[in-house]
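All the exercises in this workshop are built on plain-text protein records. Sequence and backbone structure share a record, each on its own labelled line. The structure tokens are whole numbers drawn from a learned vocabulary of backbone shapes. The record below serves as our worked example for the rest of this section.
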Amino acid sequence: MEILLFIGGTLFGSLVTFGMFLLVSGGRGPIADDDGGARELATDKA
């Protein structure tokens, strides 16, 4: 039972860490890149 709790806690911790990583880095970077890409495409079409 303790092993299952340890594995579950590790997986949950990994998910939380991964989620925070996405919020901090992926949340801001890719959104800004997507906005820039959209503007570039619009400029190229115009």
About this structure: The chain has a mean pLDDT of 70. Residues 2-26 form the longest helix (25 residues). The two ends are 64 Å apart (CA to CA). Helices lie at 2-26, 29-45.
